[in-house]
Each structure stands twice: as C-alpha cells, then as structure tokens.
Design a protein that fits this description.
The complex is a heterodimer of chains A (212) and B (170). Chain A is an all-alpha fold. Among the domains of chain B are: 48 residues, no CATH class; 52 residues, no CATH class. Chain B is elongated, with a radius of gyration of 45 Å. The chains are: A mainly alpha (212), B mainly alpha (170). At the A-B interface, α2, α3, α5, α6 and α8 of A face α1, α3 and α4 of B.
C-alpha cells in the first residue's frame, strides 16, 4: 500500500476540461501498446469517479485514495486483456471493486471483526419502530456529523457485496440491470442483496430515523 | 418484472418495479407477515434519503499527484502484462483444413502404392465372369492368385466335376 507523503499543495492544474480529447478507444489501444501517457489520460478521466465509488465502500479518504491507486495500477497491468466487450469503465469498475473487496476482507480478518450477515426478515423490528418522528424537537436531533458517523458504522457492518449494491442503487442511482452488468451478477442476486442490505441498514439505523 | 422469491418481490415493490397486478396481492402478503406496507415503504424511502443525503464523498485530494505517483509505480512495475493466449481448441479452422488435406494426401498415397492397377480383369474377359459367378453348392469355391513378376493370374476353381467347355481358357 502506498504510504508516500502526498504533495502538500494541490496547485497543479485540476481536472480537465481540456478541450477536445482523443477518443477513448484510441487511448485504450495506445495504452495496450504500452503508452503510459495514454493510460495517464484515462486515469485523469476516471480518477474522481473511481475515488468516489471506493470512498463510498471504505468510508475513509486515505484508504480510498490508496485503493484507487492500487486499482489503476492493476488496470494498467491487465489492460491488454481488455477486449472491448464491455465499456471501459465497466471493466475498470470491476478491477477497482475487486481490489476494494479484497482489501475489506483482509481488513476484516486482521481486525477480527465480522460483517453483520445474520440479519434477515425475522430480525427486523416491527416497522413502526423505524417510522420517522418529525415532531421531535431540534435539540434532540442528531448532529449531521453524528448521523454520518452512524451511517458509516452501519455501512461498515455490511458485507462488501451488500455494500456494493447499496452504493450502486441508493447513491449512484443505477437500475437493477446496470448493477447486474457492472457487478457481474444476475438481476435476481442484485435484488436479493438489496433486500438484505436494506433490512440490515434499517435495523441498524432505526434510531437515526427517529431523530430526524 | 416477475419475481418468484419474496426478497425479489419486496425489492421490486419498494422500488416501484412490481407489476401493478401483483401489488395488491403482495401488500396483502406483507400484512399476513405482520408488516405494514405503508410503514415499510416509508421506512425504505427514508433510508434511501438518509443514505443519499449523507453520501457525499470528499473531492479527491492531490489529484495530479495521484497521476504522478501512479506513473512512478507503473515505471517501477514495468510494461503491462501481455495478453494471455486465447484458449482455443486444437481444432481451429485452419488446422482442421490442414488436417483434412493431409488425410486426403495420405489416402491418395496409400491408394497409389497398395491398390494394384492394371489387373488381369483388364486383359481377360473370363476373370470377371469367374469372380462374379455364384456357385450353387457350398463345396464349390473359386480363388485367384496374381503374380506381379509374371503378370499372371491363376484362377483356382475347386469342387467342380467339370469345367464347361465355354469357360475353357484359350
């Protein structure tokens, strides 16, 4: 994992709206021929999207930055295997997610924590408990930072697979077919994972609902 | 969208993807399971809103350094790995065509070397007659022996009391 000190300033030109750019297939072909400048252009195009996606999975900026690096490096190593059957980002996404999920699993083993995989329909409290109570006084409301912290904690208790579908559906807003294509699973599996992921989150975050 | 399992139907129902004709029966099923459809829907909606409202990720810091460091790591790693050879069966089309041509060639060579040509049948009108003859008795047999050196075919007929005069060789 990368531990080098990062540049203290962010003064270099930011991301590009750099006018006309070479089209993506050309960049891919040139990258496959070993042209690092072409690959660098692809990285520039997708780094923010990749970082954001990974951040939603790991919920820590430093880890997301490093994992995005590792993911792009892995993509470079295997770019000659890209045959163009899928869109480049779909291919890249799978590499990034594999890197992220492997990392999450290793972290789980190292920390000895377990993902909460035991919550099913029968573990869900009566839904009335999760009903938001809008009449609560502002003083009782949770601070935004605390809510975010609670969400992070809840998401981190999901398995990486459940995290992935929740992020793609609830945050990225993809439909079932798009999720299935991106993750490489069936629509039925997408829906099943969504069901359990939502139920788990509802159980873990029900008191947050109450205070909103 | 049709789904056979409860999880699939529940998810489709929450997301408004369940077919209209199935909604009523599914909501009835929820009631039978002790779940209030209205509350379930509201709960799921609030969860989605909560996640989206607090999902903003920070902007990627040091984005250009990100590229710089990646280039550095790529330089250390060396060129990307060559694409693995495609796993194809041995019987690709060119190889199949080559094998077919080779088999034909071998068959032709065998035919040329092992199958005799210019047989006695070319010279003697009786040869075919003897070979084609169907003896009435099992005790009658006819064999031919060809000697290439003398270019002579001997017809050996066994079991006949006599040879018809018309079959006598000149």
């Amino acid at each position: 994992m990368n531990t080098e000190t990062r540049s203290p300033s962010n003064s270099a030109p930011s991301d590009p709206e750099r006018g006309p750019q070479p089209d993506e297939p050309d960049l891919i072909v040139r990258s496959q021929q070993g042209e690092t400048a072409a690959f660098n252009e692809l990285v520039t195009r997708y780094r923010h999207r990749a970082f954001s996606m990974i951040y939603q999975m790991v919920r820590r900026e430093d880890d997301a930055w490093d994992l995005t690096q590792d993911g792009f490096l892995k993509a470079w190593k295997s770019i000659r295997n890209f045959r163009g059957q899928a869109q480049f980002y779909t291919w890249l996404y799978r590499i990034l997610m594999n890197v992220t999920i492997d990392w999450l699993r290793k972290k789980q083993v190292q920390s000895g924590t377990e993902f909460d995989d035991a919550i099913g329909l029968n573990n869900i409290e009566p839904a009335s408990v999760t009903t938001p109570r809008s009449e609560l006084a502002p003083a009782v409301r949770l601070a935004d930072k605390e809510i975010r912290s609670r969400i992070d904690a809840a998401v981190q208790r999901l398995t990486p697979e459940h995290r992935e579908v929740i992020v793609l559906r609830e945050i990225e807003g993809l439909d079932y077919q798009e999720i299935a294509d991106q993750v490489g699973i069936s629509i039925g599996t997408v829906m099943s994972r969504l069901f359990y992921a939502r139920r788990k989150l509802q159980t873990m975050l029900r008191d947050v609902y109450e205070t909103l | 969208m049709k789904h056979s399992d409860f999880e699939g139907r529940f998810t489709a129902w929450i997301d408004g993807q369940l077919e209209a004709s199935d909604v009523t029966s599914f909501e009835q099923e929820l009631l039978e399971r002790g779940l209030d459809p209205a509350v379930e829907r509201a709960s799921a909606r609030h969860l989605g809103t909560l996640l989206r409202d607090h999902a903003s990720s920070p902007p990627m810091s040091n984005a250009d350094f990100f590229n710089h460091q990646l280039r550095h790591r790529i330089a250390q790693e060396g060129p990307s790995a060559p694409a693995p050879l495609e796993r194809r069966g041995w019987w690709s089309l060119p190889r199949l065509a080559f094998s077919g041509a080779f088999c034909l060639l071998v068959a032709g060579a065998l035919f040329q070397t092992l199958i005799p040509r210019g047989t006695a049948a070319d010279h003697s009108p009786y040869f075919a007659e003897v070979i084609d003859a169907r003896p009435l008795s099992d005790g009658i047999s006819a064999n031919t022996i060809y000697t290439a050196r003398d270019n002579v075919t001997v017809v050996w007929i066994d079991g006949l009391d006599y040879l018809p005069a018309t079959y006598q060789l000149q």
